[in-house]
Design brief:
The structure is a homodimer. Chain A has 16 helices and 16 strands. By secondary structure, chain A is of the alpha/beta class. Chain A folds into 2 domains: about 1-285, Alpha-Beta Barrel (TIM Barrel); about 295-390, no CATH class. In chain A, the strands form 4 sheets. Chain A has an 8-stranded parallel β-sheet. Chain A has a 3-stranded antiparallel β-sheet with strand order 1-2-3. In chain A, strands 7-8-9 form a 3-stranded antiparallel β-sheet. In chain A, helix 7 crosses helix 8 and helix 15 (about 345-370) runs antiparallel to helix 16. The interface of A and B includes residues 40, 42, 313, 332 and 342 of A.
Chain lengths: ~400, ~400
């Protein structure tokens, strides 16, 4: 599904594209986060017009609310939320281990309490794939355990063993669903998953292993042996120093098959994206553009604008003079400052829209720079301007 | 500024239009409320696309936040909020007497404490017009005292005396600003107000008098003697029974000049609008469509849909099958129910948008019905369907 188009001459940066049932995505690219079937504050039309080619949603959240029945009856996640482009759904492994209470890893899956209503839930690698098949997402992620930093060696080893086992079971279940409707899977599930799998939902493996580089290497080898449509690096941005994150990526990415997509989960800031594109990463997701937008922080090529700052009270310039999004075309800093001062929703909308536009533009600029063999210069120029005003 | 086009044969309902510096408005019409320079949750483009021809904003709120300086520097309210259609600004009389603390009516104006930060404020009829001239609204409202229901006769009489005095002073100040830049008004104010008045901002008087019909009559006579560009009936929907409100309107509206606009302030529900269009009212404003939208209640021709209701969990119909707004075209009740269940902003946006579309459509249907001499039938048909499901 992934086609490598061009490799940068000086770095590991690469331009490519991948094809899904809901359209093509050029890489490197960034996925705005629509955790609960909505990219917060925005309509799908706005998200698309901002330049977004693919969004991320989350199986853990959707499983709890609104649940499989509702989305199945709506005809899948795309129809439910009125987004007709590609969707990647995270498995919820990260959420099970960060949000839920009393989680307990058993042989066959994880028992946990919902962070919303305390209800007892039980998921398995199989049920998580099955749920994503009901969602009909273009890319499904396997259930994994995302360990935090720091983490003891023996726990990391034990965890990786489980994660790899789950990855194999996810792959097996996905293939079985595609092959065989008369398996022991309940009939409604089987028919639904067959239908979905026939639509070529892809399944990605997730490289874990914490900050132990040999475990990362082991994880990659085991996942490749199982075989996936693409590979993600998880367990990043979980408390480790930035330089250690880059080191993990430096070791891990070159081990991944060149003809598969490389997805860095939960990354990141513009700086992180540039640093890791340079190391060979293809796609990213992060709550930063939308969450920062709702908190009143706008990304610009000259650094961040914290719009609540009193200095913007009478500033009739746009958020970013170089940006052509509706927020920058139609509204001033003074007006958006006013909206945030009085907690008006339009303010959250405008900065969310601007920020995902900024991210989409950044990714486009990165692709063009790699194509033109000037990625290193682009990165240097961007970070020089960007840092300058962040101080 | 108002042109009567057609009178209904059976009722006092009438179709007309009025012209402002920012465009024409057909009547009867409804103004969505943009209290603080934003129609809550929506962009001006969305408000316009919904069929809205004029919006209302509020001098009291804008005076406190962001204040005259900010809006003046932005070049007026239209530019500040990026709405290029007509704006009517309420004076804030209602807010001074309902929101603020420790208000004290003095000879020359009102002293009150801001409901936001407790700061001491003093406004006069003149300063309120002056502020609306800085805003550059198309229709300015005079400062008035909006008394509540019930109200003692002697208080109502005393209050009306003040309100009429303020109305005269507002008119005088507005005319003086237009005529004479070398008056004793400070030069910056004078030049700004001259500029604004040259742009033909209109000034409306407000009929008060509580539930005392003879005071209402007296108020109308005094206001007509002073002379305004249009006349509003205020002090409605302040706790009085609905039938009494209609009685006040029955007595008051026929006394207003036929060749001026009749504005019913703070009214109302679809039913109230139909009942009072029948009595000769031309324009309306009310927070109901936007506030109800944010609370999860959608207006439809068949009655209200309370979208949080569990029965909508798997309902894949649109909010209103007869509506063509983006909310009804693109999203299902099940999805919007989900958004409200998880407190997602997109839900507030979609129902706000639908509700103002519903109001704009209602007003269009009313105008067409009057034009076609079938207003009474339209009203009866609407209320029959609408009530049916409201139970």
């Amino acid at each position: 599904m992934y086609k490598l188009i061009k490799k940068d001459k000086k770095t590991k940066a690469r331009v490519g594209k991948f094809t899904t049932q809901h359209g093509e995505v050029s890489t490197p690219n960034f996925m705005p986060v629509g955790t609960s079937a909505t990219v917060k504050t925005l309509t799908p039309e706005e998200v698309k017009a901002a330049g977004t080619e693919i969004i991320l949603s989350n199986a853990y959240h959707l499983m709890l609310r609104p649940g499989a029945d509702v989305i199945k009856e709506a005809g899948g996640l795309h129809k439910f939320m009125h987004w007709d482009g590609p969707i990647l759904t995270d498995s919820g492994g990260f959420q099970v281990f960060s949000l839920s209470k009393l989680r307990k890893i058993k042989d066959d899956g994880v028992e946990f309490q919902s962070h919303i209503d305390g209800s007892r839930q039980f998921i398995t690698p199989e049920s998580v794939v099955e749920f994503q098949q009901v969602l009909g997402s273009d890319i499904m992620m396997v259930l994994d355990e995302c360990i935090h930093y720091p983490c003891q060696r023996d726990y990391a080893e034990k965890s990786l063993k489980i994660t790899t086992d789950w990855a194999r079971r996810s792959r097996d279940w996905s293939l079985a669903g595609a092959r065989d409707t008369s398996s022991d899977i309940s009939s409604s599930v089987a028919s639904s998953s067959l239908a979905m799998t026939q639509k070529k939902q892809m399944l990605f493996g997730i490289v874990q292993g914490g900050a132990y580089l040999d475990l990362r290497k082991q994880a990659v080898e085991e996942l490749i042996e199982i075989g996936f449509d693409g590979y993600a690096v998880g367990g990043l941005s979980v408390g480790e120093p930035r330089e250690l994150m880059y080191e993990i990526i430096d070791v891990t990415l070159p081990l991944l098959p060149e003809d598969n997509l490389h997805y860095l989960m939960g990354v990141g800031t513009p700086q992180d994206i540039l640093e890791t594109v340079e190391r060979g990463a293809d796609i990213f997701d992060c709550v930063v553009p939308t969450r920062n937008g709702r908190n009143g922080t706008a990304f610009t090529s000259k650094g961040n604008v914290k719009i609540r700052n009193a200095k913007y009270t009478k500033d009739n310039l746009p958020i970013d003079e170089e940006c052509v999004c509706p927020c920058c075309k139609d509204y001033t800093r003074a007006y958006i400052h006013h909206l945030f001062s009085i907690d008006e929703i339009l303010g959250l909308r405008l900065l969310s829209l601007h920020n995902i536009t900024f991210y989409a533009k950044l990714m486009k600029n990165i692709r063009e720079a790699i194509t033109d063999d000037r990625f290193a210069e682009f990165k240097k120029g961007f970070l020089t301007n960007y840092k300058e005003k962040e101080k």
